[in-house]
From TrEMBL:
EC number: 6.2.1.5
Family statement drawn from the similarity comment of this UniProt entry: Belongs to the succinate/malate CoA ligase alpha subunit family.
Annotated protein name in UniProt: Succinate--CoA ligase [ADP-forming] subunit alpha
Annotated organism of origin: Adhaeribacter swui
Alphabetical list of PROSITE patterns matching this protein: SUCCINYL_COA_LIG_1 (PS01216), SUCCINYL_COA_LIG_2 (PS00399)
One GO CC term on file: succinate-CoA ligase complex (ADP-forming)
Binding site for substrate: 159
Length: 296
């Protein structure tokens, strides 16, 4: 099957008629994603990209049966957009927006805590199940269908990992870009768990970066499962100086345990096949699946 999104997903776009929403919605439609409409307050009743526009997410769900949303709403209003989607019963909420205030996300996390939904992002590239649905901003042509799952904090490294996997003669089941902010909806461990429990995913690529403890928690979970599926891991920021923020808001070294070196050591101790360069991801995964030995 896949996780989170597939050919049966009914997708709406919040911020549908804005420039970013319009551009990426068109890309998603051309990829084959089942985009059933969008939401822009005040423009309900009109059409855009040959799809209906609604004033609220509740209206869109009622009229289209939407169960997935992708959010391109400006940072100041994005938290409200997430909570509106949650209240409307959307099951998968993909938030692309970058720059949402941390205090807003603290409130959102508490608000959705007991709701039956999965929030991906914010500040993420989205989710893609190749050949079925692209709910995000990733270049779809890089991804080919297969049985390797990807979980990544970094958008560009999601694409690089997919490219390496495909060049190695393999393909992707589902790729999840979880986002690089300090507070996100689905931490690395949770995303890895989705793929561990997916019968059509044979192995996983896990890409992290300096800062935080998401990778350590995911690594411990992988070890606790008995390493039932092989995992190839990479940590970005290996040359980052302590105290320097690198790209993402969450990518800042706060102590000895959230350096790249420490994370790579923890991952290796938990049975993950750690690579020092993203260029080695595909080749390493191919060797792991063949049962060949991997050089340390």
């Amino acid at each position: 099957m896949s996780v989170l999104v597939n050919k049966d997903s009914r997708v709406i776009v919040q911020g549908f008629t804005g420039s970013e929403g319009s551009f990426h919605a068109q890309q998603m439609i051309e990829y084959g994603t089942n985009v059933v409409g969008g939401v822009t307050p005040g423009k309900g009743g009109s059409t855009h990209l040959d799809r209906p526009v609604f004033n609220t997410v509740a209206d869109a769900v009622r009229e289209t049966g939407a169960n997935v949303t992708i959010i391109f709403v400006p940072p100041a209003f994005a938290a409200d957009a997430i909570m509106e989607a949650a209240d409307a019963g959307i099951g998968v909420i993909v938030t692309i927006t970058e720059g949402i205030p941390t205090k807003d996300m603290i409130y959102v996390k508490e608000y959705i805590r007991d709701k039956p939904l999965t929030l991906i992002g914010p500040n993420c590239p989205g989710v893609i199940t190749p050949g079925e649905a692209k709910v995000g901003i990733m270049p779809g042509f890089v991804f080919a269908p297969g049985r390797i799952g990807i979980v990544s904090k970094s958008g560009t490294l999601t694409y690089e990992a997919a490219d390496q996997i495909v060049k190695a003669g393999l393909g992707i089941s589902t790729a999840i870009g979880i986002g690089g902010d300090p507070i996100i909806g689905t931490p690395t461990k949770n995303a890895v768990e989705l793929l561990m429990n997916d019968p059509d995913t044979d192995a996983i690529v896990m890409i992290g970066e300096i800062g935080g403890n998401y990778e350590a928690m995911a690594s411990q979970y992988i070890k606790e499962t008995g390493n039932k599926k092989p995992v190839v891991g990479f940590i970005a920021g290996q040359t980052a100086p302590k105290g320097r923020r690198m790209g993402h808001a969450g990518a800042i070294i706060g102590g000895a345990d959230d350096t790249a070196e420490a994370k790579m050591r923890i991952m290796a101790e938990c049975g993950i096949h750690v690579v020092k360069s993203p260029a080695d991801i595909g080749e390493t995964m191919a060797k792991v699946l063949k049962g060949e030995s991997i050089e340390a």
